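Hi L., both proteins are below.
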Amino acid sequence: MTITEEDVIPILKDLIKIKTENPPGTTIEAVNYLAKEFEKSGIQTEIQEYAEGKANIIAEFGENEKTVIITGHLDTVPAGDEGKWKYPPFDAIEDEGRIYGRGSTDMKGAVAAYVSVMKKLKENEVKLKKKIIFLGTSDEEIGMDGSLAAKNAGIMENCDFVLIGEPTELKIGIAEKGTLWIKVAVTGKSAHGSAPHLGISAIEGAAKLLLRMKEAVPELDHAVLGKSSLNIGKISGGTLINVVPEYCEFECDFRLVDDNLREQTKKTINDIIEKFNNKQEAQAEIKIIHEIPAIELKEESAFVELLKNKAKELGIHEIIGVNYGTDGAMLVPDYNTPFVIMGPGKLDQLHVTDEYTEKKEVLDYANLVYQAILESFS
C-alpha cells in the first residue's frame, strides 16, 4: 500500500510542463490534466471556473459528512528571464535526485503528492471515518481568489482539518504571518526645475514618509513567527529631471505575526500620515491594496500529533511558523478550523531561478500523508 515513485513523480513532471505563471494565472489546462488523472482511478471531480481560464479542482474520497481538506495551489510566480535558467523552467528536468522547474517547490510537488494520495485511497477502497477532499486552487500567488471562491461555495462547512502543502522541508508549520499591503500617494505642486522654491516636491515628501513607515511595525515577538516586518517594495514619481515632481507613490508590505496587530498597524500609519499632512505642504493619502489575516493553530489534535510523529520518523523535529501567506488564511479563520502547513520543498527555493525540489522528499511526503490518513481515520 506504499506510494511509489511511479505514482507521484510523473504527475509532478507533467504539472511543471504546464505553464501556470501568475500573472496571467491561467490554470485551466492544469485543472483539466488533473481531472483526467483522477478519472483514471474512478475519482469524480468538480471544476470551479470562477474567472476566464482560472479554476479550482475538487476531488473527494469517502462518503462521510465531516471532511479533511488537503490543499495546494496550481499557479506559480513567473519564470522571469528563461535564459538565466540552467535547466529550462518548464522542461521538468531530473538531475541527481532533483526535479527542476518553475513550481517544483512552490508548490506542484505537494499537489502531485496529494493527487497520488487520493488515487491510492481509491485504488485500495479504504474505508474512512471522514471524507478526504483534495482542493487544488488558483490565484494563490496574487489575491487568493481561488480559495475565496471555494470557501464561498461552502467547502469549509463540515471541515474538521486543513492540511496546507506549502514548502516547509516537511517541518510542521503551526502559524503564518498576515499581510497588509498599502500604497501611499503623495501630491505636491509642479514647477520648473530651475526654480524649485515655486513648487512642492512630492518625491521629497515621500522620502520623509518612507523614513517613518518603520514606526508602524509592531514590536510583538511571536514564539514561532518572530517579529513583524516591513518591506518598501516599490516607488515611482516625477516626470522629468527639470520638473519639480507633483506626484510620487510607494508601496509597503507589512507582515504581521498576530491578526490582532492589523488594526493597530493601520491606526499607526494613519497617525503618521495625518501628522505629515498637518506639517507639510505636500499631502499624502493611503490606500489598502491587500490584506489577509495571520493564522495560528490554537488547539492540538490527535491528527496533528500523528503528523508530528511521522515527521520525527524522518528525523524532522522542528515546529515552525512561516513568513509567507497561504490559502489557509482565506479558508480557516471564519471557521476556526485546525490546520497545519507542511510540505516538501526547501525554503530557499521559493521563487528563484533554477527552482528545484528533492524527488525523495516529495515521495516521503506522499507516504507520510497517506499513512497519517490511514492511521487517523480508517
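That was the first. Here is the second:
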Amino acid sequence: MKSVLALGAAPSAVGELGAWRRLTAPNSALMTLLKTILLFGAASALLFACLKRSPWLAFQTLWQGSFGSGFALSETLVKAGPVLFCALATSLPARLGLVSVGAEGQLVAGSITGTAAVLALGDVRKVVLLPVMLLAGALGGAAYGALAGALRARLRVNETIGTLLLNYLPPLLVVYLVYGPWKDPNSLGWPATISFPDGARFASYFGTRVHAGIALGVVVTLTAHVLLVRTRWGSELALLREGPLLARRAGLSFERAVLWVMALGGAIAGVAGMIETSVLESRLQAGIGTGAGYAGFLVAFLARRDLRLVLPVTLVVAGLGAAGDNLQLNLELPSSITHVLEGLLFAATLVARGSTTKQEEAS
C-alpha cells in the first residue's frame, strides 16, 4: 500500500486495491467459512468414531433426518421457526456491540403475556384474537428485554451476565402458573392451561406441522435487515458501536439505544414464544421453547451480525436439532448428541476465526 501511495496513485485506485486485498486475504469471510466447515467435519467424525459409529454413516443419518425427505425438511422448518426469531433477538443488540443471551427468557416471557391475553379474551374471532395474542407476546418479551437493557444502561450491569441470569425466572413463573392459578381443572393432574380456542392457533400447511409463523419469521428477518442497512437508525447503531465518542458528539445516546435495541430484540423473541405456544401445544405448559434461545445465539454468532446469513445458518442449526431422533433410531445414540454437535460447531467457528485473525496480524 505504501508503494502505491508513493507512486502517487489516485485515491480511487488505492480504494480498489484495498478492496481486492480484503477479498483475497486469508481472513476473508469465505476462508473463515471453509475452515469452519473442515474443522466441524473433522471434529464430528472424531466424535462419532469415539462412539464406535461410522462417521460416514452418521453423516448420512444426519442428512436423512434433517433434509433427506419431505417429512425431515418439514420438521427442520418447524424447529427453525423459534431459532430464527431468537437469532434476530440476539443479532439486533449485537449491532450495538452488545452480547445478549437472553432470548430464552424473553421467549418464555412472551408466551406468558400472550397466554394471559388468550385466557382473558376467550373464544373470539381469529382476526381479533391472533393479533392481540402476538402483540401481548411482543410486549412481554419487550418488557423483559428492556429490563436487561435498563440494568446495562443505568447500573452498568454486564448485559451478558444480566440476560443469562434473567433467563431462569420466566420458566419458573410458568411452572407456578400451570401448577397453580392457570391450571386446567379438567387436565387430570397434567400441569397446563386450558386448550387455546381455534382463533388463537396458526394455520398449518401440506398436512405437516409447517405453519404461518415460519413465514412471519422470514418477513421479520428481511424487514430487520432493511432497517439496519437502509435507515438512519441502523447507521446510528453502527456509529455508536464503532465510534462512541463521535456518536456522543453527534448527540446520540448509547444508553437510550441500549434500551430500544434490547426491547426490540425482546419483542421479537416474545412473538416466537407465543407462536410456539399456539402451534405446538395450543396451551401453555412447562418447557416451552427450551433451547431455542441458545440455538438462536449460536446462529447469531455464526452469522456475525449479518442478517443475510441468519436464514441459511438457522436452517443448518435447526437441521442438526431435527436429526436427533433419526440418530437415536438408526445409530442408537441419545438425541442429545445434537447439542454436542452444536457445541462443536461453535468451537470450530471460534478456532477458525482465531486462526484467520492471527494470519491477519502476521501479514
